[in-house]
Amino acid sequence: MNTAIPIDETIETALRDVIDPEVGLNVVDLGLIYGIEVTGNNARIDMTMTTPSCPMTDYLVDCVTDTALRQLPEDGAVDVRLVWDPLWSPDMISPEGKNLLGW
Prior knowledge:
The protein is α+β, with helices and mostly antiparallel strands.
């Protein structure tokens, strides 16, 4: 019986180590990751920012890309796509994230 964790779940777990330095919360619990799709050795990650003018955009995209790449085979590739629909709101923060923020 194969009990391997699907690679998209592995990537999502790894992305919990990517912390938004302005908020102090990981990008998954902050609700910035809208989707992870793995096809073969490649991953597409749809993510957003808390605002379109977020000064941490390049930093967070680079961190998400690097973190996801480490979960893929050596010849894998990651395409991080910024999306703005739906716009992010604090309602997208996970219950765990709200707890960590003291909400």
